[in-house]
Amino acid sequence: MRLIVTLLLLLFIAGGVVLGALNADLVGYDLAFARVQVPKGAALLAVLALGWVLGGLTAWLGVTTRHRRERRHAAKAPGAKVSKTS
After folding, report:
1. Which residues have a Cβ under 8 Å from the Cβ of 25 and sit 6 or more positions away?
2. CA separation for the pair 13, 83 (Å, rounded)
3. In 3D, which of 59, 54, 50, 86 has the Cα closest to residue 70?
4. How many angstroms separate the CA atoms of 69 and 65, rounded?
5. How far apart are CA 4 and CA 1, in angstroms?
6. Cβ-Cβ contacts under 8 Å for 42 (sequence gap 6 or more)
7. How far apart are the C-alpha atoms of 64 and 13, rounded to whole Å?
8. pTM of the model
9. Distance CA 39, CA 28 (A)
10. Distances (CA, A) of 30 to 20, 21, 40, 50
């Protein structure tokens, strides 16, 4: 299993290097308060990482909110014991 994960990681790293090399030209972004020129590969990697972080944060917030809501409803139920582990 560890070998498969290592090979997949190396495959994606190689793909990222090839993608970055093929898209080395600069692209400009106007962010209304600053103008930035970055290589296309770096922009793609930054947006991918940002999407990954925001997706993880959204999933985490959804799960923790649901758990809090379930604990509140369990606490309001008569005779219910609520564990303090979170």
Report:
1. 39, 40
2. 44
3. 86
4. 6
5. 5
6. 20
7. 33
8. 0.56
9. 9
10. 22, 24, 15, 18
Q: Are 39 and 28 in contact (CB under 8 A)?
A: no
| 16 vs 49, residue with greater confidence | 49
The pair of structure tokens assigned to 57 is 């944060």
Closest CA to 21 of 46, 41, 49: 41
| The pLDDT of residue 47 | 87
- Structure tokens that stand for 19 in this block: 């993608």
Q: Does the pLDDT value for residue 21 go beyond 70?
A: yes
DSSP lists the bridge partners of residue 23 as: none
Q: What is the 3-state secondary structure (H, E, C) of the chain?
A: CHHHHHHHHHHHHHHHHHHHHHCCCEEEEECCCCEEEEEHHHHHHHHHHHHHHHHHHHHHHHHHHHHHHHHHHHHHCCCCCCCCCC
